[in-house]
Amino acid sequence: MDELLSMSIGGAIFSGNSSIEDEIDRLSIKIEEADVHLREKGRDDADGYGWVNLPYQDLTKIIETADWLARSDAIVQIGIGGSALGNRMLVNALLPPFYNELEAPLRRGPRFYLLENSDPATAAAVLNRIDVSKTAFVVVSKSGSTTETIAHFLWVWQIVRDKLGNKAQEHFLVITDPKKGALRKFAKATGCRSLGIPESVGGRYSVLTSVGLATAAAVGIDIEKLLLGARQMDQRLAMRQQTWENPAWALAALNVIHARLGRNMAVMMPYGDGLLAFAEWFAQLWGESLGKNGFGTTPVRALGAIDQHSQLQLYMEGPDDKLITMIDVQNRPGFELPRKIEDDVLREFDFLCDKTLGDLLSIEARSTASALIKAGKPVVYLKIPEISEIYVGALVFFYEYVTALVGLLMDINPFDQPGVEQGKRYIYSLMGRPGYQEYESEVEKYFGICSKFEIIV
Amino acid sequence: MDELLSMSIGGAIFSGNSSIEDEIDRLSIKIEEADVHLREKGRDDADGYGWVNLPYQDLTKIIETADWLARSDAIVQIGIGGSALGNRMLVNALLPPFYNELEAPLRRGPRFYLLENSDPATAAAVLNRIDVSKTAFVVVSKSGSTTETIAHFLWVWQIVRDKLGNKAQEHFLVITDPKKGALRKFAKATGCRSLGIPESVGGRYSVLTSVGLATAAAVGIDIEKLLLGARQMDQRLAMRQQTWENPAWALAALNVIHARLGRNMAVMMPYGDGLLAFAEWFAQLWGESLGKNGFGTTPVRALGAIDQHSQLQLYMEGPDDKLITMIDVQNRPGFELPRKIEDDVLREFDFLCDKTLGDLLSIEARSTASALIKAGKPVVYLKIPEISEIYVGALVFFYEYVTALVGLLMDINPFDQPGVEQGKRYIYSLMGRPGYQEYESEVEKYFGICSKFEIIV
Predict the structure, then answer these.
(1) Where in the sequence numbering do the catalytic residues of B fall?
(2) Cα separation, B111 vs B130, whole angstroms
(3) How far apart are CA A306 and CA B284, in angstroms?
(4) Which reaction does it catalyse (chains A, B) (predicted)?
């Protein structure tokens, strides 16, 4: 019954050092160890490693909840970072463009809005777009205390309660830690619906938990297929025990070696508007997992073919400091360019006839890869047959796997984020949270250095 | 009558080398020379330098054309790169969020769509959103031969002509070179409306020409105010003849020095959803202007506060390889968080009461800057009073100026883009354009190297 994955991943692995393949071979033993470690920890459901098991989870409760969500006119998900990016990625890839603009019969489910950034202009605009009495609010925070999310939630909760009184909680779904935190307490106290986020899964690895799947299913994305894709990818990766046969091993090794050679950026450049947010999702996964101990290549988000008109000049002739990944898509909704040019003055474009716009996009991907390779830049070229649930699920699992392997190869914990705590303490102090007053003077002290130069224009 | 600009630009200029201020002082003479060069070439309207004069242009014809555009139900702009990014930036910053979703009375003008990427899914979706008989199509390409733009144009032109016959050209506005190119010929042959792009202005510097301004004015953006902001910025910059008084000089110098010290990334991280596309616009300006001769720092697009939950870990604890610019906004549409927490289980968030969501966003900017500075990372902190026409105009001119100065300081021509030609030749060859057959085998040869490793999953 299963549709079978069929992706190809290849690349040109230039470097200043011609022995790069040998170097990768020398990494082989370490890669194998990292892989064994990853799978063992996954099996134990160790802290941070729980995503390894997500392709095999039972979806019953999530689908039940999604059925309820699907009955509203609009869904507003309140969350930030890992509690929003995965959703944005799924919606961007798997729903029609301009989804929220479409009349109801053309949509597969409710309209879907995110309250993510603490930006009052966006928040006010979202509230203006909905009728709260027909809206489901999905509040997502694993800790239950993410500042932006709680701020949005408190504000929305007051509005809904003012309007709907003691029916307000019937419009809320809380997705949070199964036991701990303020949102869990809130769910217990009000009796509103809730889903748990597995304790062993961190925010940036959580798209295949309730965090990503509940609202995705509600808007008509086939979440069984997402898991099927992830499962197949997992099984393929488990079968391949040679670096040059296992794409996750090969890519992890390539990334480690290129980083050592001074290429400190990992460009993610899918070709197709539907994968724009995939590059965003990747950027969080990569940046937050690997950016520690002075290590970490910087994820650079790009979009083909648009960034050929923005970043390609730099990629071609700027410093050789990037490993560039391009994702091409084989089948795109075909539609044909005119078969014949009728205007004399446009005759020079005859060569475009009998092509499709999709042909053009894939030709651009291939041509740009060739030009970069000719210029001696390392390129990874990944090709999927189509942008669909099964391939998005496969890509998600694949990049989670690669990221974790790179972290382990660099002796980094790819599942923590200690570096964001300082900023949080500072935010709490300026917001006046009890217990954080001591940091206020520190914020001012360091911010003062910002006026090392200060120019009023 | 003029509203006066009031922006502050400051920063913490750490580096491994404590003498960075001295180094910048040593650059002073070169900066002054570059500035004189820039203004002289601008005065002569030399090739590439024409943007220097745009703040002083006469808008009569653009406004006349915009009045005509404003009478349609929807505007579809066909363009890519510099012929789309500036428009996206203006619309994102200066129109309400979810603009196209709003009912007509809540909008200031027609709905606005871009056909930018050669992605058939998006193109089909845009066509489904409009009634061609009530739509104005704006085709933008300076050369008149940009492949993606022409492909979209040929396709749309056929559809509109099939539907509206010899009234079709009444729905088209062409924005292109005043004399040359296929689109100019098309405008002459059909008699459709047209605007010129000044010959001395390149694509990525063209947002304040007809390219950016015509549709902006049509959707209700005050383009006189945009120019006013640019003009005031120009005059302020012209008055300041000391590096540490002139923000463009200071920033250009900082960028050059940090690049020399190995910081090969320029992070642009505005705080506010309305400036997301500003970072995109900056990325093209910066990347395509400076990425040549093996030089060029890579623009990294970020968005505060969202990227605190995605990239901050890396910025804090990853390699010290970035110069990070944050843009804060003083006045945001206020709306208040609840004044009192009524639920016991949420009492721990009392500290959020009596703040606004806008306060939170600015506190996040300030706290994150402090945390980065404490971690020893160089930060530029720019603050504008509000996101409005005058400040967007000022920022545009400011960053164009800084970019050009950096190019001149590095002995780079910031107005060409030779590195994209190779890719274009390859695209033409695969598309079968006469005269480019010879490159086809070259594409295949270099693309073949892509299978240096190739793994079928």
Answers:
(1) 288, 309, 424
(2) 9
(3) 10
(4) alpha-D-glucose 6-phosphate = beta-D-fructose 6-phosphate
**The dihedral of CA B349, B352, B354, B357: what is its sign?**
negative
The answer to whether the beta carbons of residues B297 and B335 sit under 8 Å apart is no
Minimal C-alpha gap between B190 and chain A (Å): 9
Q: What residues of chain B lie within 8 A of the CB of A23, using their CB?
A: none
Q: CA B261, CA A266: separation in Å to the nearest integer?
A: 21
pLDDT in tens, A256-265: 999 998 999 9
Distance between CA atoms of residues A70 and B277, nearest Å: 32
Distance from CA of A353 to the nearest CA of B (A): 9
HSE at residue B84, side-chain half, CA atoms within 13 A, is: 21
Residues A372-383 pLDDT 10s: 999 999 999 999
| Residue in B closest to A361 by C-alpha | B118
Pair A46, A284: CB distance under 8 Å: no
Q: B133 is written with which tokens?
A: 């008989």
Q: Which chain B residue lies closest to A155 (C-alpha atoms)? A: B337
Residues A333, B124: C-beta atoms closer than 8 Å: yes
- Tell me: pLDDT of A131 over 60: yes
Among B298, B341, B436, the residue to mutate for chain A (most A Cβ within 10 A): B298
- Among candidate residues A116, A148, A280, A288, the one labeled active-site is A288
Size of interface A-B (CB pairs under 8 A): 527
Is pLDDT at A1 greater than 50 in this prediction?
Answer: no
Please indicate whether residue A41 is annotated as part of the active site. no
Does residue A301 carry a pLDDT above 70? yes
User: How far is the C-alpha of B7 from the C-alpha of A450, rounded, in Å?
Assistant: 15
CA dihedral B234, B235, B239, B244 (to 10 degrees): -40
ipTM attached to this prediction: 0.96
The shortest C-alpha distance from A79 to chain B (Å) reads 10
Instruction: Spell out, as residue ranges, where chain B has pLDDT lower than 50.
Output: 1, 16-17
What does the block give as tokens for A344?
């004399």
Please say if the pLDDT value at position A22 is more than 90. no
Q: Output the 3-class SS for chain A.
A: CCCCCCCEEEEECCCCCCCHHHHHHHHHHHHHHHHHHHHHHHHCCCCCCHHHHHHHCCCHHHHHHHHHHCCCCEEEEECCHHHCHHHHHHHHHHCCCCHHHCCHHHCCCCEEEEECCCCHHHHHHHHHCCCHHHEEEEEECCCCCCHHHHHHHHHHHHHHHHHHHHHHHHHEEEEECCCCCHHHHHHHHHCCEEEECCCCCCHHHCCCCHHHHHHHHHCCCCHHHHHHHHHHHHHHHHHCCCCCCCHHHHHHHHHHHHHHCCCCEEEEEEECHHHHHHHHHHHHHHHHHHCCCCCCCEEEECCECHHHHCCHHHHHHCCCCEEEEEEEECCCCCCECCCCCCCHHHHHHHHHCCCEHHHHHHHHHHHHHHHHHHCCCCEEEEEECCCCHHHHHHHHHHHHHHHHHHHHHCCCCCCCCHHHHHHHHHHHHHHCCCCCHHHHHHHHHHHHHCECEEEEC
Residue B166: DSSP 8-state: G
| Neighbour count for residue B212 (Cβ, 10 Å) | 30
Show Cβ contacts of residue A1 under 8 Å, excluding neighbours closer than 6 positions: none
Largest CA distance in chain A: 75
CATH numbers and ranges of domains, chain B = 8-42+229-409 (3.40.50.10490), 53-221 (3.40.50.10490)
Quick check: B182 and A357 CB within 8 A?
no
What residues in A contact B295, CB-CB < 8 Å? Answer: 318-319
What's the pLDDT score for residue A224?
A: 98
Chain B positions touching A190 (Cβ under 8 A) are 343
Taking the C-alpha atoms of residue B142 and residue B206, their distance in angstroms, rounded to an integer, is: 10
Residue the block writes with tokens 């716009």? A357
